[in-house]
Description:
91 residues; mainly alpha; 60% helix
Amino acid sequence: MARFKQSGVMAEFTRRFGMIAVNRGYVTPIQLKEALAEQVEDDLSDRSHRLLGTIFFEKNLMTPNEIEQVVEELVRDKTRPRAAVPKKKNQ
């Protein structure tokens, strides 16, 4: 069994990092899928877990500056207040 267990927060971060990288045009959806597959293979093979930014950098798909921009966007999103969701009324 893999040593790395992805918490809900880490899973959300990973998914969002990849989507931001795709939305910014740094990687393609196919490159994101391949990087996610590499993460899973590493985890299942009991190798050290690598973050998506690390995988993208190792494959020369993203620069350190681009990775930093994605992380900064993640941090901004996490610190931005969320709008309250109205509760449904009983019908």
